[in-house]
Every structure is written in C-alpha cells, then in structure tokens.
Design goal:
- The protein has helices spanning 2-11, 29-39, 44-47, 57-62, 72-75, 80-106, 111-121, 155-162, 164-177, 185-197, 202-216, 223-238, 266-279, 294-307, 320-333, 351-367, 386-398, 415-424, 445-453, and strands at residues 254-259, 284-287, 310-312, 338-341, 374-380, 402-406, 428-432, 440-442.
- By secondary structure, the chain is of the alpha/beta class.
- Strands 3-2-4-1-5-6-7-8 form an eight-stranded mixed beta sheet, with helices on both faces.
- Helix 14 links the parallel strand 2 and strand 3.
- Helix 8 packs across helix 19 (445-453), helix 13 (266-279) runs parallel beside helix 14 and helix 17 (386-398) packs parallel to helix 18.
- The longest helix has 27 residues, at 80-106.
- The relative contact order is 0.11.
Length: 457
C-alpha cells in the first residue's frame, strides 16, 4: 500500500499533463518579471492546503502494487515525512481490521461460527521432536506406583517360621502315624521314638505318650489330637523356666558374664541386650573379654557405639581376667548400672581353656563376693543334642544360671530347648530368631510350644 501511494505521487499529474500555452513571440519586461516570480520555488508548508489529500480515498482503496516504471531515482525523491504518514495509516487500518475480526469472534451468530473461530484462532499445537532421553508431559512414561509397604511379621510369626523345619517334620510324621489307626501300645512306642528323634527329650516324650494313653487309649486318634496334647505337655515343661532376667541394681554395677562355645552368637547377643538396657535408661558398659579374636573386639566396639554404651577393650592376646578386673573397677567408678563382659568361645572339652574361664569368675568374686551376678550361656539351636552337654560343662565351670537360645532361623532343631529345660531346669531368658537388633525377645512358653507343634495362635 505504501508503494502504491508512492506510485500515485510520482505519476500524479503525469497521466494528463497540462498544456503549456505558447509564449508570445515577444514579451514585455513586466511580463517576463511576473513569469519569473511564478517559477520561483515556494515553501510546501505555506502553499499546500493542509485539509486536502492529493490522493482520493477511492484511489487509496483501489491502489495496486508499485508501478513497473518506478525507479530508484524516483523513490529517493519522496519526502520522508510523507512515507512515515502513509505507514502509520496502513498500521491503523490493519489494527482496525483485526479489532473487527475479534469483535465478530466474541459475538458469533451460531455454534458453528464459534467452532470456526476457535479452530482459526487456536491451531492445534505441533508436538516437537525431542532428542533421545527426553519426553513431553503428554508422552512420558507413566510413573510406576510405589510398591505397597511390606507388612512386618509379628514376633510369633517369626518364631513359627524359625521352627518350621522342626514342626513340619514332626507334625507330618505324627499325622502319617495316626491315619485311620486306634491308639495301642505299638502306636505309643512309635510316637515316643518320633518325639525323641525330634530332640524333645525322653522325659517330654514320656509325658506326651502317658497323657495320650490315659485319655485316648483304645480309641481312634488323629494327628491333630496328638499335636494338641503334645503342645500342652511342652507348655508344662517350659512354663517353669520361662522367666525374666532379674537385675539386682543395688549392685553398682550388676555384672553379666556371657559364655558359650564358638559360633553361638555371644557378641551379637550382648549387643542386643545392651540395646534393650540402654534404651530403658540404664547406663551400660561393654567389656571385650574375647581377647583371642580381633574381630570380636571390633564387633563389640560397634555395638557399644550403636547402643550408646561405654566400651572397654585391650590389645589382642591380653589376659582376659585382667581385663575383667579393670572393667569392673572402671564401671564402679563411672557408676554404671550394668557391666556385660564378653568371653572367648571355648570348646567344652578343652580343660585348659575352661580353666581360664574359671579364673575370670574368681577375679570378679574378689571384687564383689556376689559377682558375676548373672552368668548367661548362649546356645545354638542348630547343634541339637550337643547343646545338652555344653550346658552341663559350663554350668559346672562358670556357674551358669540362665540360658539364651539363638539362631532359631529356619534350620533350627528347636526341640532341644524342651529337653534342656526338662533336664537342667535352668531359666530361659531370651530366644533369638535372627541377626537384627529386634530379633531377640523374652522367652514365652506358650508361643514356643504352639510354634513347634504347628498350631496357630
């Protein structure tokens, strides 16, 4: 449009050039002066009318593109202020057209007009092609739902899982024995053999068979009947030994000596006990009396740090009895509530090693006639009948007065605890089903009997 205006400016007056009248042959001096005055340049601002436009509105609307004969020389002759005025007029005209279109869009005459306006005004966006490893919000893979939290097993469920091997084997054999069969002497003998093989011990086996014979002899008996009676008799054996660990806090410190053969979990058990005691607000000290293994000293140090307990250790190979003496003196000075002393794992058939354990007990007795106040023996539930002999030896040497059964973790032969309880009548304070800090719990006779008999609670 601007170029069209330029064309009109430069062609204005050229389409119909005015005829110049022929000058007379001779002009007077006055006429020549008048003609000369008219030909002088005049100021455009003074001479041109301000209210008139040299180009008509009709010509503006119908003006075409630039003229074919428009040259650079002609273009350079156009005044700058005239070009700017034309551009401003063109912009105002375009804005007016857009405003009219927007007004029409805001007041459509029908739903079809609305759809057309929306379609024209908002074209469908083009999804960009992103490099590998990127995605738009619409195309990225949906986020996977977080897995449901695993429900934590109760203590009884963990105990039952730990005794599964014993219970499944025992109940399976009992069920097979009492399938469509009356209770007679031969059946009772076979049941007694099964119970002894399951490490329940002769005394417990006789209790079960005697009770079963008195109640159901000569009658049809199912495997379920037998397991219920067996669980009841096991509870009777275990109930008297299921006791809490009593601490005499009038002694400062109360000394707990932990003994047992190699691999029964002494150090780990000490750490778990320390966690329970320090968690209740007691001041606990741990002494690394297993001076034969560097790993045992380091492991106990870790447990002390984890439980907020005081730690006392010595160099590898040092005298364990001397460490026990030093630990007792330090615990007394620090007013510790409980001192737990670890000892080296000793085979019960090595007399010289057991003699060193006796020395520790004598040294502690010199400091306090009642020390050690508690002697705990850890038993590995996988050892079976060998655990019976271990209890007898350590009881004679170190004066064991309480038991902790460990490693009831699926490979256990848990029936041996029933046999030990029946024979030695020693308190069973705790049982462990794993390596975790919360895998050591007080011993409950009913739970243990139900788990070993495969009965739900």
């Amino acid at each position: 449009m601007a170029l069209g205006f330029i064309k009109k400016v430069f062609t204005f007056g050229k389409e119909k050039p005015a005829e110049t009248p022929a000058a007379p042959a001779e002009l007077t001096a006055e006429e020549k002066a008048a003609i000369s005055a008219e030909s002088e340049p005049r100021d455009r601002d003074e001479d041109l009318p301000l209210a008139e436009d040299p180009v008509l509105a009709e010509e503006m609307e119908t003006a075409g593109g630039p003229a074919d004969d428009l040259s650079d020389e002609d273009l350079s002759m156009v005044p700058l202020d005239l070009l700017e005025a034309e551009v401003e007029a063109e912009v105002e005209e375009d804005v007016t057209e857009v405003s009219q279109d927007a007004a029409a869009a805001l007041n459509p005459e029908s739903e079809e007009d609305v759809s057309a306006v929306v379609s024209d005004a908002a074209p469908e966006p083009v999804t960009p092609i992103l490099p590998k490893g990127f995605a738009t919000a619409e195309t990225r893979a949906p986020e996977l739902e977080a897995p449901a939290p695993v429900e934590k097993l109760s203590w009884f469920q963990r105990l039952k899982a730990g005794l599964f091997r014993t219970s499944s084997q025992l109940t399976g054999q009992i069920t097979a024995l009492f399938t469509k069969r009356k209770l007679d002497d031969e059946t009772l003998e076979e049941l007694e053999d099964l119970l002894i093989q399951a490490d329940l011990g002769v005394e417990t086996a006789l209790r079960v068979t005697d009770t079963l014979a008195s109640e159901r002899y000569g009658k049809d008996v199912t495997g379920e009947d037998v397991t219920k009676i067996m669980a009841t008799e096991i509870v009777k054996v275990l109930k008297p030994v299921a006791k809490p660990l009593a601490l005499d806090l009038s002694h400062k410190p109360h000394v707990i000596l932990v003994v047992g053969v190699n691999g029964t979990g002494k150090t780990t058990t000490i750490g778990k006990l320390a966690a329970k005691l320090s968690g209740s607000g007691l001041k606990v000290m741990l002494a690394a009396g297993d001076t034969f293994r560097a790993a045992a000293i380091e492991q106990l140090k870790i447990w002390a740090d984890r439980t907020g307990s005081t730690f006392l250790g010595t160099k590898l190979g040092a005298d364990a009895a001397g460490l026990a003496y030093e630990a007792f003196e330090k615990a007394r000075a620090d007013k510790a509530d409980v001192l737990i002393i670890d000892t080296a794992g000793r085979l019960q058939n090595k007399a010289e090693l057991m003699a060193e354990l006796e020395k520790i007990v004598r040294v502690l007795g010199k400091l306090d006639p009642d020390a050690p106040h508690t002697v705990l023996q850890t038993l590995d539930a996988t050892t079976g009948q060998n655990a019976l002999q271990q209890v007898e030896i350590f009881r004679n040497v170190a004066g064991v007065n309480g038991l902790i059964m460990t490693k009831l973790d699926g490979t256990a032969r848990g029936g041996i605890l029933v046999a030990i309880a029946a024979k030695h009548k020693l308190p069973v304070y705790f049982i462990g089903v794993g390596e975790g800090i919360d895998d050591l719990e007080p011993f409950e006779a009913e739970d243990f009997a139900s788990a070993i008999a495969g009965i739900a609670r």
